[in-house]
Structures are given as structure tokens and as C-alpha cells.
Design goal:
five-stranded mixed β-sheet; four-stranded antiparallel β-sheet; Immunoglobulin-like; mainly beta; 6% helix; 157 residues; 12 strands
Amino acid sequence: MQGIFLRKYGAETKVDFDLYETDGSDLKVNAVHASGDTKIMKDEGAEANTVNSFADEGQGYSITLTTTEMQAARIKVYVVDQSSPKAWLDTTVMIETYGHASAQHSFDIEKAAKILTNKAVQNKTTGVIQYYDDDGQTVILTHTPDDAESVITRTPS
């Protein structure tokens, strides 16, 4: 069983997955995608064929989801062989998104990493702390303490 993938909301992404022989004993290493073999469901909505076919990566497979396909909080990809008899066991790929108000997790992991690793400057008079992007010039977050220094207001850029 595969876990849940965490990917950025609205960003094209590639996810890897495994297929198994129909008896479940071994990895399926020679599956060929046919129309309708991969469907996507976004936020428990209607299912639709994926834009891209899955790709054979040797021992496993991958599928690239488009920016539009990645605009959902929860995404489920079904990989179901449409032929009879089936060439592989059906599987699913679960994705949760981050970094957008409509994502499953609105918190932006990439921005958080920049805040932890990039330049931060505190104004000693006002206490305001500005966190900068990779370029060292663009402010991506400002922390502003109140006069009593008991509250800090965060202002993401």
C-alpha cells in the first residue's frame, strides 16, 4: 500500500506508483496504458480521464498531473486496467495539496523553508522582523510586535 503524496496546489507534478500482477505476487513491469486506464477525482467530485498516460519507469510507473488537475484539496487517481482479462491489479494514488487557501493544507511548506533558511532582519527600534526570499531583496513575511510585546502580527507578502 502506498501512502498519501503531498504536493503543491496548482503546480504540475509527477507521482510514482507500483502495479502488481493480477495474482498479487510480483510487480507488474510491462504494463501499457490505454485510454481510460487512469481517471482522476478531485475533492470527491466527478471522475474524468487524466490528461496524461502513465509512464513505465522500469520496476514502477509514474503519471504527470497538470496544473489544472492539481487544483483541488484532495486528489485521487485510479489506475484500472480496462482490458479483459485484466493485466494488473487495480490501484489508486492519493494526493493532498498544500500552499493555497483551497488546498487541503493552506500552509506553504516552501515559503516556511525559506523563512527558516533565508535572511531575516529585525528593526531594533520597532521590533519588526522581515523575512526575505532567495533573492535577499523581496520580503515574504513580516512579523510586527505590538507595544506590549505580547502579540505579534504576521503579514505574509
